[in-house]
Amino acid sequence: xDTFYLGRQPILDREYKTIAYGLVxxxxxxxxxxxxxxxxxxxLLVHGLMDIGLSQISNxxxxxxxxxxxxxxxxxxxxxxxxxxxxSIPADLQVDDExxxxxxxxxxxxxxxxxxxxxxxxxxxxxxxxxxxVKLDMGVPDLSSTVKRIRPHIAGLIxxxxxxxxxxxxxxxxxxxxxxxxxFCRPQIVEGKLLPASSLAVMQALQQVMGAEAISDVEGVMxxxxxxxxxxxxxxxxxxxxxxxxxxxxxxxxxxxxLSNIRQWLSLLLLADAGKGLPAEVVRIALQRAKMLEGxxxxxxxxxxxxxxxLGLFSLLDTILGISMKDALAKLCLPEAIHQGLTExxxxxxRLLQLVKEVEHGDWGKVDNIARSAGIxxxxxxxxxxxxxxxxxxxxxxLAE
Length: 401
Fold this sequence. Notes:
The protein is an alpha/beta fold.
């Protein structure tokens, strides 16, 4: 049976707003453990996108899918709506009259076309005329001169492999308008940064809840903060709970939720409050990691799924708070396993956190190694990822309380 891994990498604009996603994928024959031939892989990618649902992957934004000659000339792209799917053309694809005609037709139909890399040929110059954007990786030789050469001929310039905030600043100075890479997930440490009062209240409550053994241990800290009590009652009375009668007391709300759900709710509040002003993709990735790790726990350690959820949720805590992870963790009393997972990549929790990170980055060799050592099958992992994407898309309102 053929299997595949699929990674989704956001593309941000100059205001840190996500404007599209790029897909990276890897497929192989599970029987022979060999990489599938390019043409067969291309066909399977189309079927895989149909099975998962492109709308679940896209988050209602364009998704650039890497294509082969076969995908283009056989019209597979037209299986998907142009408002959701874009075409990503590798620089090494042989561009001839047939490819130019197909790309021109796709562009007329409304499909965005992204060219990866710059090649100084007549065919490439013709392709630029129908393309909507070009992606150039940071660090390649003569990047500035290449941008100057092609800028008059293309509307969108996307910088790839933007891994640090310095990369981002440099790319903006060169003239790029889109940025792909995980620079926005890296913390910008601000010495002496003060958290908003709402974040401090949530963090204090969360610290109390982390060490609690019974609901009675947390009732006092919840009731001392009027705003927190109000948010708790609004949360429990939301339509999603389907309660027959309105809950009007903090004690009743805490009893209905239970300690595990209270920890998750407070953690989400902390991300929502402290994450204001950050790229929305930061919190979205934290949520996706949390749900993926929870799904992995359900495969073989269901009793730990709450801890796995918090592990993913707090994996970007340093970025969200703007302080070092050491300082961020000093403010919370997390279980030792979660603490180790966030600070020691070689720990059992740390390895699983690294697994979901490598899925994001598309480093399939590392994904294979970690998944195999943890006894996780590719099909199970992709099922977990699909459900996590769906959950994040459906529950973005969790951060709007």
